[in-house]
Specification:
136 residues; mainly alpha; 8 helices
Length: 136
């Protein structure tokens, strides 16, 4: 690649990078405000956790308060924890919920009934841990 093309390519990348925050939020399937509302485990309270009868949209917004890919350092490691349905810690549970939100957003439909049962179980386990203040 010629140096002139490389410079033009870098300028194109720079221009494309300007709206990344709004692109990322829309790809997450939520508002920019919700995408920026990360809640680390130690700051999680019962009022942050959706009620047992919450809609998938409410649960999905809560799921996105956890930065699963960042916590595990990669998509692959996050997927490994979530697909194993590891529930050994609050971080594992939030990883599972986060990954289900990402999975179903990628598929483009709401979770099926069987998956919603699992998702609600995960949310209730998160609620139980937060209620007992075991926020590891």
């Amino acid at each position: 690649m010629a140096i002139g093309n490389k410079t033009a390519h870098n300028k194109t990348l720079h221009r494309a990078a300007i709206p990344l925050r709004s692109i990322a939020a829309s790809e997450l399937g939520c508002s920019a405000e919700a995408a920026m509302r990360e809640i680390i485990n130690k700051d999680l309270t019962l009022s942050n956790i959706p009620n047992p009868d919450a809609s998938w949209d409410e649960i999905g917004e809560f799921a996105l308060t956890f930065a699963g890919y960042n916590v595990w350092g990669s998509f692959d490691r996050c997927a490994e924890i979530a697909n194993a349905r590891s529930h050994e810690s609050l971080t594992d549970l939030r990883t599972c919920l986060f990954f289900e939100q990402r999975r179903w957003r990628h598929i483009g439909v709401n979770p099926d009934q069987k998956t919603m049962i699992y998702i609600r179980e995960v949310v209730e386990k998160i609620r139980s841990i937060v209620a007992t203040c075991d926020l590891a």
